[in-house]
Design a protein that fits this description.
62 residues, mainly alpha, 2 helices
């Protein structure tokens, strides 16, 4: 399975890195890394009209 995933450049994480806490740490480090670069480049978010789903969109979530 790992070979098939590698064929599409997708790799399995070691179990100690496949946790919610590890993901939080990874995201925080990436945000810290990229935020100053994006700010220096002057990149701004353009409203794409996307909105977060609400309970009204999925009555089963109520």
């Amino acid at each position: 399975m790992a070979e098939k995933l590698a064929g599409i450049e997708t790799y399995l994480l070691p179990l100690d890195q496949a946790t919610p806490e590890a993901l939080r740490v990874r995201l925080a480090s990436q945000i810290s890394l990229w935020t100053p670069i994006i700010e220096r480049a002057g990149v701004q978010v353009k409203n794409s009209g996307h909105r977060e789903p609400s309970v009204a969109d999925d009555p089963g979530r109520a």
